[in-house]
Description:
Blueprint: H1 2-28, H2 36-54, H3 58-77, H4 85-106, E1 118-119, E2 122-123, H5 129-151, H6 154-164, H7 166-171, H8 176-202, H9 212-225, H10 230-249, H11 260-275, H12 295-303
Antiparallel strand pairs: 1-2
Helix pairs in contact: 1-5, 1-8, 1-9, 1-10, 2-3, 2-4, 2-8, 3-8, 6-8, 9-10, 10-11
Amino acid sequence: MLNFFQLIIIYAGIYALMAIGQNCITGNTGMLSLCHAGFFCIGSYSTAIICKVVGLPFWFSLPVAAIVSGFVGFLIGVPTLRLKGDYLCIATLGLGEIIKNIATNVNPVGMMAVPRAELFGYQFSSRNKFTFILLVWFFVLIAYLLFRQLAHSRLGRAMTAVREDEVAAQANGINVTKYKIGAFILGAAVGGTAGCFATAYTLTVQPGSYTFMVSVMVLCMVVLGGMGNLAGVILGAFIIEFISYFPQLVGLSSVIPAQASQIIYGLVLVIMMICRPQGILGRDRYRYGDGRKTRRSAAVKKEA
């Protein structure tokens, strides 16, 4: 039981990284993207190639995975700038599937026996899950602090302005194009980093793992926790991963079909959208870096 619960915490941390990246694109800037599985795939393959083929250590593959994924995010962000809403969603969905199909055609079998991550001679192994939990959640904490600082900075407020009203933001001198591309680059880089840790844990890469449903699940984590709320998207990642592994955790995997977990968290999302559409922790829309503006003061100002 404890061993399996540690597994849930590890994958919750990996998907929390992906959700933080998705939140930068969707929660902060308001772009509905469904290609995060593609960034996850790029980060995973980058780590596998660098560690196994090139022979370099895991810590070298970590920045490379982020840079390569961020560059692909730039390539995706540029041609989709003029698209909005459903059109942007469909375009990014297609681009994510292109990335997965390229990986499948180039290497349909995948890669096995990727070397383990090492730190000062210590190898992070799936047998000792506690150390890997510390590793993954340490980087989740770093990503949380960095993106929280970003959200409370001038750059983050500009992204929020683009999300709330793109025309008004552009009229106030905000370069909408720059902030949209920047959001794609940052979100893709974090998604690639998550793929790097996934490969370091499983020591395998299989192209069939980066499906459209992975992108949908990550988007659900952001919506469930609260778009724009970093603590919320991390909580959403943990809840959905817990639901996904709940039948195995309680020993009912032989009774409950594999699709039951998707039905459960789909039902949870439907209930959330009816009862609390802003997410579990809500949207942190009116709180800025100095902490002096609150939702209440913003509402009073709006009524006045």
